[in-house]
Amino acid sequence: MSLEASLALQLPVIDFTSPNLKPGTVEWDSVRDDVRKALEEYGCFEALFDKVPVELRKAVFDVSEEAFRLPLETKQRVVSSRKYRGYVGQIPTLPLFEVLGVDFAENEDKVNEFTHKLWPQGNTIFSESVMSFTEKLSELDLMTRRMIMESFGVNENYIEKHLKSTKFLMRLMKYQGVEETEEELGMEAHTDRNMLTILCQNDVQDGLEVKTRDDKHWIKVNPSQASSYIVLGGATLHVLMNGRVLTGVHRVMRMGTNTRFSVGLFSVPRTEDLIYPVEEMVDAEHPRLFKPFDFEAYFQFTTEGPGRRDLAALRAYCGL
Ligand SMILES: O=C(O)CCC(=O)C(=O)O
Ligand SMILES: [Fe+2]
């Protein structure tokens, strides 16, 4: 696919700002219908969500810039044996991209441990911003997952248990801008492996693109407001919902001299739980599509060869 295939298409925009957005209300049911439609048709949507104060969102981008300014040797103190956790940079195919992945971003001890590796003397603004951003933004993740499961009639006990069986990974990302006129790939096209991903970016608006379901076009994502977040379905949610919700294929383009910073909140299954389609999603009309799989093993599989970050590879890995 050529790089310049983007069209002036738009993602669905869903408003989560109603103060009455609680399960059982008319507002909830209406947003729930929109979420289902968007995840069925795009595997992705733009959420308007005002529970993250503007100053907090700004603070996260400020500490992210501060962290990336640290010397390379310092950033490398948080290198993880697992790809895309800890620090990753200097990737030969994407030399201008760097990421700092904070695993268990909801857990004070883990965030403090991560922070102390970067700043041995501590950095409370960093750790507190990461934690409170995770706490506030995870509400959007939890609401979305509850809505999608409810809309397919999944029972309440399962939903409660499911929502508690995840942890959060926060990825701080930087795409260095350089002098050039051509568009260039900042991150190759892929689907995420986790449950849901929530993305936001600094004031550099361009970059993120999501593929249409028919595989023909790239939608340029231009968040409409300062309180916009992009929500993407991941492979694990796709398996849980027995293929009934899509995973949004996405990529990042780097454009010109502007350095782009983005932040992603990823809900990830806890390793001890095997992933398989929820009972209510399987019936005569919708036969079981996937066998149980272990998330860590699947994650490892996707890192061991090219082209393993799409639905075809997922089906080859655990399809029936
Ligand atoms: O930088 C972004 O907006 C997207 C990052 C992304 O797709 C990922 O981390 O999986
Ligand atoms: Fe992604």
From TrEMBL:
Domain of life: Eukaryota
Xref: Pfam families: 2OG-FeII_Oxy, DIOX_N
GO MF annotation terms: metal ion binding; oxidoreductase activity
Keywords on record: Iron, Metal-binding, Oxidoreductase
Limits of the Fe2OG dioxygenase domain: 166-269
Secretion signal span: none
Cited InterPro entries: DIOX_N, IPNS-like_FE2OG_OXY, IPNS-like_sf, Iron_ascorbate_oxido_reductase, Oxoglu/Fe-dep_dioxygenase_dom
Family to which the UniProt record says this protein belongs: Belongs to the iron/ascorbate-dependent oxidoreductase family.
PANTHER family: 2-OXOGLUTARATE (2OG) AND FE(II)-DEPENDENT OXYGENASE SUPERFAMILY PROTEIN-RELATED
Protein's recorded name: Fe2OG dioxygenase domain-containing protein
Source organism of this protein record: Microthlaspi erraticum
Lineage summary: Eukaryota, Viridiplantae, Streptophyta, Embryophyta, Tracheophyta
